[in-house]
Write a structure and sequence with these properties.
With about 210 residues, the protein is an alpha+beta fold. The protein has one domain (about 30-205): Nuclear Transport Factor 2, Chain: A (Roll), CATH 3.10.450. About 60% of the residues lie in helices and about 20% in strands. The protein contains seven helices and five strands, in the order H-H-H-H-H-E-E-E-E-E-H-H. The protein has helices spanning about 10-30, 35-50, 55-70, 75-85, 90-115, 175-190, 190-205; strands spanning about 120-130, 135-140, 145-155, 160-170, 170. Strands 1-2-3-4-5 form a five-stranded antiparallel β-sheet. A hairpin with a 2-residue loop joins strand 4 and strand 5.
């Protein structure tokens, strides 16, 4: 009488290994779009721009960093915050003009500030996430060993993490601009502020090559 073939025992070890790998892949996929990845994408671009600064020239640096800023910063939210209570009173086209101009100034500022390379290193220190907000702590270490703290505040909107504030050595860029821009809007209006930002962009273009 033929004996039934024994069923193979479940390979528990292999099953757990597969599950573990799936978890790792899921976490890797999540991390690839996470707050730290967004900040490091920006830092990678800045480092490349610094190393190739002379070859790129000022306009080349602007063209290099501008599209990356668009993908890593939430300029719409930043625009609303830095204009404060005035934002609600702006027409849609005025908001768009301000945000576009502000983004252009951001690109011009980065192109001006990161215009050469002397061995600087960007280092990510930590990431803290609470619901739809995150804080990524980093630093840029200069060739003399001096470290400058660069902390990034990010919000998650429409499933995407974007930078809304940069805190350099404890100084909030968002707070500075909110105070400065609010004063100009209250005294001279939003069109005057936009004109001042455009003048600043022009001054960068005239001063640097």
């Amino acid at each position: 009488m033929n004996q039934p073939c024994p069923l193979p025992r479940p390979r528990v070890g292999a099953h757990l290994l597969t599950l573990f790998c799936c978890c790792l892949f899921a976490r890797a996929a999540l991390a690839a779009d996470g707050p730290t990845a967004v900040v490091e994408k920006l830092h990678g671009t800045l480092l490349t721009m610094m190393k190739d600064a002379a070859t790129l020239g000022r306009e080349g640096r602007v063209q290099t960093v501008a599209p990356v800023l668009e993908r890593t910063f939430d300029f719409q939210t930043i625009g609303r915050v830095v204009t404060g209570r005035h934002w609600k009173g702006f027409a849609a086209d005025t908001r768009e003009r301000f945000v576009t101009t502000f983004a252009g100034l951001s690109a011009a500022t980065y192109a001006d500030n990161f215009d050469g390379y002397a061995g600087e290193i960007f280092t990510t220190l930590s990431e803290e996430v609470k619901k739809n907000a995150a804080l990524v702590k980093t630093q840029i270490v200069k060739s003399d060993g001096k470290a400058v703290s660069l902390n990034y505040v990010l919000n998650q909107r429409d499933g995407k993490w974007r930078i809304v504030n940069v805190i350099a050595d404890g100084v909030s860029d968002l707070a500075l601009k909110r105070s400065e821009y609010g004063a100009v809007i209250a005294k001279e209006g939003i069109d005057a502020l936009i004109a001042k930002l455009n003048a600043k962009i022009a001054s960068y273009a005239a001063a640097r090559t």
